[in-house]
Amino acid sequence: MEVLIGIPLYNEQAYISECIHSLCEFLTIECSEFEITVLLVDDGSTDKSRNIYQKLSKQYPFQYIRHEDGPRGYGNTILTLFEQAKSNYDVLITFDADLQHAPISIREIIDLLNYNSDIDLVSTSRYLSYRFWHQNTEVPVDRYVLNMLLTRTINKCFNLGITDAFCGLKGYRVKSLPNTLDHAGYAFPLVFWQYVSQTGLKLKEIETPIIYRLDRRSRGEWNYRVKEYFRVLESIISSPTLKQIVQQDYTQAIEMLTEIMDHHSNFPIYTYNDFFKSSYVDQLITDIGRKEEQLTCLFYQTASVIQLDKTMFYSENDPNFINGKLL
Questions:
Q1: Which range is least confidently modeled, 76-90, 146-160, 255-269?
Q2: Helices marked H in 99-187 — which ranges?
Q3: 176 or 134: whose pLDDT is higher?
Q4: Residue 110: which of 93, 97, 129 has the closest Cα?
Q5: Cα 289 from chain centroid (whole Å)
């Protein structure tokens, strides 16, 4: 089985050296019986990443290509890896350059795809079980909660049963890869999960450790990211019913994250299933529902008052005022 391990990279001068070293060492020790190629795709880095990986290529057996017209975006970098994998490989594994993926999961991915011909995709999850949680680093609350809520909405829209929609460590059977997907940015996973649903790919989810780098615990304001992810999700679905679900989940996500970020910065971390079983989360969702009901009632009450108040501005001879009622 020919395996391609693809590393999407953009401005990773702080981590690329350790990433290449640890990955190649792991493959030499744990995966020596397989034909494995490591390919780094640089999306036009503007820092010192290029100089670093060019020097490393003389020491370690990996290849690299660069988007000279980059950055094209995370999604297009993954699509470049898809195209490269189709040239001569059976399996593609995507592995981030920022040390937030654990090489230990690579061997399990390879074995699953090697010995189970019916599996098309192996997706790793940080929130499937507590198997690796003794190794976990601290988790950014905003990214964790947003992942849980978006994963739930993705499951609703695409009839999936995943527990972590945004972990980039995946194993793809190359013959199942799409020719193209229409999204270049970090919302690419949303489009990919739609593809998985539409094509009926056989999916296997496995556990992987949670790893967050200190300088990667925020990707900008969380409210912007919430808005962008839900906007993209709504734009790629056509069902009015599902669009309404996305809109409702977006509103709930904003309210939950606002409450949690303002008052619960030490919010506990659970697996995906336990997150929605949590008494605190359950109470928060209930409270949000009550607030929405109260706002709805207030709206109609206000509308009624406004309607009555308008009668003061009409005389009984006004054509808009008939039988004591305002038309």
A1: 255-269
A2: 104-115, 141-158
A3: 176
A4: 93
A5: 25
The end-to-end CA distance of the chain, in Å, is 76
Q: How far is residue 38's CA from residue 171's CA, in Å, rounded to a whole number? A: 14
126 within 8 A of 100, measured Cβ to Cβ: no
Nearest to 166 by CA among 184, 187, 181, 182: 187
3-state class of 210 per DSSP?
A: coil
User: pLDDT tens digit string along 115-151?
Assistant: 999 999 999 999 999 998 876 678 888 999 999 999 9
Burial 268-281 (b: 16+ CB within 10 A, else e): ebbbbeebeeeeeb
DSSP per-residue string spanning 222-265: HHHHHHHHHHHHHHH---HHHHHHHHHHHHHHHHHHHHHHHH-T
Give me 98's structure tokens.
């920022």
Residue 1 has pLDDT above 50, yes or no: yes
Residue type for 35, please? E
Number of residues in the chain: 327
Q: Is 315 exposed, middle or buried (0-12, 13-18, 19+ CB in 10 A)?
A: exposed
pTM of the predicted structure, to 2 decimals: 0.85
Quick one: tokens of 295? Answer: 């706002």
